[in-house]
Amino acid sequence: MKRTKIKELLNAEAALDPVLVKGWVRTKRDAKSFSFIELNDGSCLANLQIVAAGELANYDEIRHLTTGAALSVQGRMIASQGAGQKWELQAQNLVLIGSSPDTYPLQKKRHTDEFLRTIAHIRPRTNKYGSAFRIRALLAHAVHQFFNDRGFFYIHTPILTASDCEGAGEMFRVTTLSPQIDNIEEDFFGVEANLTVSGQLEAEMMALALGDVYTFGPTFRAENSNTRRHAAEFWMVEPEMAFCDLKEDMAVAEDLVRHLVRTVMDQCPDDLNLFARFVDKQLMPRLEKLVGTCFERLPYTEAVKILETAAQDFEYPISYGADLQAEHERFLTETYFNGPVIVYDYPETLKPFYMRLNDDARTVAAMDVLVPGIGEIIGGSQREERHDILASRMDRMALSREKYWWYLESRRYGSVPHSGFGMGFERMVMLLTGIVNIRDVIPFPRTPKHIDF
Ligand code: 4AD
Ligand code: MG
What we know:
Blueprint lengths: L5 H6 L7 E12 L3 E7 L7 E6 L5 H5 L6 E10 L7 E12 L14 H5 L9 H23 L3 E3 L4 E2 L11 E2 L18 E3 L4 H11 L1 E9 L12 E10 L3 H22 L1 H10 L4 H10 L3 E4 H9 L17 H11 L4 E7 L15 E9 L3 E8 L4 H10 L8 H5 L8 E7 H9 L20
Parallel strand pairs: 3-5, 6-10, 12-13
Antiparallel strand pairs: 1-2, 1-4, 2-3, 4-5, 7-9, 8-9, 10-11, 11-16, 13-14, 14-15, 15-16
């Protein structure tokens, strides 16, 4: 007999009969001559209530079942007498697949996020983390759906690379050399190699052939910043569009955020409700606002003016030419505008080599999308398509023309205006759940000094 998922059983219009379910015991209550078992199989937040009668041949074993044990149950779905569920399963055959001794680390009480991080191999079995990872899965699907519906091609950009796209030098070296050997020519690639910080440069090459493309994969940054919104390994969604300027780029970014929020609101109401009730009371109003309003747009210069005159003390001073820190971003989006904001046209000195120089020769066509609770969720730009301007900007930033010869060459043959952006996938999950620490939206997070599991 084929196993049915609990989600399907609970959503069924009529009782399915007979059924086979498999899952893990969440709780058990014993009455005089029968037991109630709450079974969860991960397909949804809700448990299936199982009624195991004393007549079952292995009832003695059933009475000793503990939280965490894995079961297979065959039986009939019947309308539930009790409150709280429409259906329950009357067990006809219950098999213990895997027992769970009482050292099982999850108790009925609520555990702290800090504790649960130390048992990352078990924490997906809690309600909160189960919901977070189901939302994460749906979100990934929604990303593909958004771009596929718009005729974008999903491309795969390399994870091993010799480039430093962001020019920030925050890369993880990849080598097969033993520590005693320092001759780079003997290394696997014969040159310094690292894990990618962004698939953008290669995505640009693909956009200049296929038009609209996106890459969606893991990226790696060795920034030693132990913050709540930085991980060493995270996923980025990076669309790249030929014949596209900054204005259109911003419109796509806004559409994407809205599409993702709407999809999760439509398709994950139960999981979302858990976060709205127990994690962040402001979650639903904030999400409603994200789908319902246009994103504010303002140039960096204006953002700085607002911050300079703000009646708030910042840890980092702000003036023209200074980078916006998390506290500034959050002031703009949470306090000043109380909604999503796109800041654009940043000083050239603050941004990487590939961004297009504006006519003022001081700013570049960059844009960052800022959202409440997170700050920057998307960073993007129009790319410098003019060969000579790009080459001289690279010289000034000490990037080797020889090493990036292929990137420069793309500006010689049929160069066109093009734009793109990168959306931090984990930050999107944070936005959608109200979870404030990036370590809690990644099943097995990697941060400085943490690579267990
Ligand atoms: O703003 P960033 O650095 O932009 C780029 O890498 C561009 N090459 C993207 C492009 O135009 N194709 O990063 C993009 C986004 C940020 O806005 C942030 O949401 C996320 O990636 N991000 C991180 N997320 C988690 N941990 C980190 N260490 C992150 N660094 C960036
Ligand atoms: Mg950025």
